[in-house]
Amino acid sequence: MPISKRNRTVTLSKTKKKGKEHKEAIVNAIKQALEDYASAYVFTFENMRNQRFKEFREQHKSTGRFFLGSNKVMQIALGRSVADEVKPGIHKLSKFLRGDAGLLCTNLAKEEVQRFQEYEEHDFARTGSIATEKVEIKEGPLDQFTHEMEPYLRKQGLPVRLNKGIVELVSDFVVCEKGMPLSPESARTLRLLGIKMATFRLHLVCCWTPEDFEIYNEELDLSDIE
What region holds the Large ribosomal subunit protein uL10-like insertion domain (predicted)? Predict the structure, then answer.
């Protein structure tokens, strides 16, 4: 008799969440990086893609180390005030670790790090992303799709039919409007069309060195920086 999946034993270690040991390991890794590298930066990112970021990080692993994860844990590692900071003045970075942010420790010169902002990788936009342009498909045959795709295209809202084995759009169809959030159907259709609207890029927020602290984004609220 088959064993019921409901009665299957699950090892607790497989369901255990990242706990205190994991957080302490990150804190210790950041503290060590601050000893190994001469400067530290807070950066933000747009359209994060794990694979793209992994490739970018791999390109620069010989000159620095990137940290992503809990902002709170990274703040603890740096220190949140003069009283608990691990390096003089470095607690100022903690003020900027909010939202989609990360930490970079590096030996590169400032000019070289600033060039990171020139890095861009285009990818397909996800549901909820803002359309960067209006995309409209004109009435007529859709030769790029096989007849097997016709039911799937209809499921995405496209007014299509088969005409002698050819997928045909019976009327003009707007996939998305510029400036509007993408629906799940719009995101899937753009992928089918090969249209990439998301761009993965990094933005430097501020930089700490033993000599100074520099803010790159002048629009940020600096009232709480000591």
Answer: 125-195
